[in-house]
Design a protein that fits this description.
Rna Polymerase Sigma Factor, Chain: A, 2 domains, single chain, 12 helices, sigma factor activity, DNA-binding
C-alpha cells in the first residue's frame, strides 16, 4: 500500500452481528472505480481500494442492525468516507489546477452577472483571453475538481501554504458535513436547475445514475475526454453560483 495512504483514529464498537467482509469486497472496488474517474491520474485505484477496505472493516465492527439500515448502505457511507478523508489529507489536486479552476469560476461568475444567463464556452474562453481549444484543455486539466474544496474553509497564507491542510482540528468545518446541510442542499438543487440542459444531463448521469465518463460519452455521442471537460465546467458553474455560500 502506498505509504501516503494512512488511516488512524478508528473507534471500533463491539460487533452486534457477524459480517462476511470478504463478500463485500466487490462493493469497495465498485465505489473506488466510480471515485477514481473524478480524480487526477496521480491517484491510484489500488490505493483507494485499500483505504476503502479499511472503511469496510470499520463498518463491519460498528454496524448495528437495530438501527434499521441495511449493511450495504451503512458500509457504502463508511467506505466513501474513508476514501474522501484520505484524499482530503493529501494534496491530491495540483495547485495549478486549483488556480485554473478558480479562474474559470471567476470568469463564469463575471459573465453571468453581465449577461444574466449561463455563458457559452466560447464566451468563457474569450473572457479568459484564450482560444476555445485552450480553454477546453484547461477544463480537462481540472479533472478532479470538487464542489467543495478544503481550502474554502481557510485561506492560504502569504507563502502559499494552507494552514488548514497541516493542522487537524476536530472543531473545524467539514466539507462533507457542509454538503449535508439542508440550506446548502436547497441552494445546490436550485443552482443545478439553472445549469444549461447539457450540464444538467451530465450531472444527472454521473451522480444519480452513476455512469462512468465513457458511458456518459456514449449517451451524449462525445468522447470520454469531452465528458470530463463538461463535468469540470458544470462544477465550475455551480461553484460560481454558490460562491457567496462557499
Amino acid at each position: 500500500m502506498n505509504p501516503s495512504f494512512r488511516r488512524s483514529g478508528y473507534v471500533a464498537a463491539a460487533p452486534s452481528v457477524e459480517i462476511d467482509v470478504e463478500a463485500y469486497t466487490p462493493l469497495v472496488r465498485k465505489l473506488a472505480s466510480i471515485m477514481i474517474a473524478r480524480l487526477p491520474a496521480s491517484v491510484e485505484l489500488g490505493d483507494l481500494i485499500q483505504v476503502g477496505m479499511i472503511g469496510l472493516i470499520e463498518a463491519s465492527r460498528q454496524f448495528d442492525p437495530a438501527q434499521g439500515v441495511m449493511f450495504e448502505t451503512f458500509a457504502s457511507q463508511r467506505i466513501r468516507g474513508a476514501m474522501l478523508d484520505e484524499l482530503r489529507r493529501e494534496d491530491w489536486l495540483p495547485r495549478q489546477a486549483r488556480r485554473n479552476s478558480r479562474q474559470i469560476e471567476e470568469a463564469i461568475s463575471k459573465l453571468e452577472q453581465q449577461q444574466g444567463r449561463a455563458p457559452l464556452e466560447s464566451e468563457i474562453a474569450a473572457e479568459l483571453g484564450m482560444e476555445l481549444e485552450q480553454y477546453q484543455e484547461m477544463l480537462g486539466e481540472c479533472k478532479g475538481t470538487t464542489l467543495l474544496h478544503f481550502e474554502d474553509f481557510g485561506n492560504d497564507d502569504e507563502h502559499g501554504h494552507n494552514p488548514v491542510a497541516n493542522v487537524a482540528d476536530d472543531d473545524s468545518p467539514d466539507p462533507l458535513a457542509a454538503l449535508s446541510d439542508d440550506s446548502f442542499r436547497r441552494q445546490l438543487i436550485s443552482a443545478i436547475k439553472l445549469l444549461p440542459e447539457r450540464d444538467q444531463l451530465v450531472m444527472a448521469l454521473y451522480y444519480e445514475q452513476e455512469l462512468n465518463l465513457k458511458e456518459i460519452g456514449a449517451v451524449l455521442g462525445v468522447t470520454e475526454s469531452r465528458v470530463c471537460q463538461l463535468h469540470s465546467q458544470a462544477i465550475a458553474r455551480l461553484r460560481a453560483k454558490l460562491k457567496d455560500w462557499l
